[in-house]
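#struct-help
A.M.: can someone run this one for me? Single chain, 135 residues.
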Amino acid sequence: MLFGELKKQTFYLFGVFMRRLQTVVQHPSEAPSESYADPTILLEGNPLLEKWAHVAAGNDNIKVGVMTCEPSVNRSVKNGFFEFCYLIEGLIELAEEGGEPVTYKAGDTFLMQDGFQGIWRTIEKYKKVYVCVYS
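D.P.: on it. Structure tokens below:
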């Protein structure tokens, strides 16, 4: 009976039993993976990206993590997925193609729907929690 209860509370991911409830740590202590922005979308700067990917679920249809990015400007295109963001730190500006820029600061949340195309301007280094859901 105990194993049956435990099985309901966990799932199997990459060979490891995972709990169905997971905390997204906003200030992780482990080292992030580091990379630079994709040059094909970069318009200004050469920002360092730091990522702490916490979990992929639903056959990799959902990805959740924490990420930082230095000041820069890039094209943002969401094709085949949408992205929900919560800004922990920083200041950014998003402008949908043909639309007016919208400014987001620490504590703000926003959603870029599948099909979003626009410009992402990082004014101050940001840290965000993101949830991407792929179709």
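A.M.: thanks! The mean pLDDT is 86.
D.P.: also worth noting: The first helix runs from residue 2 to 9.
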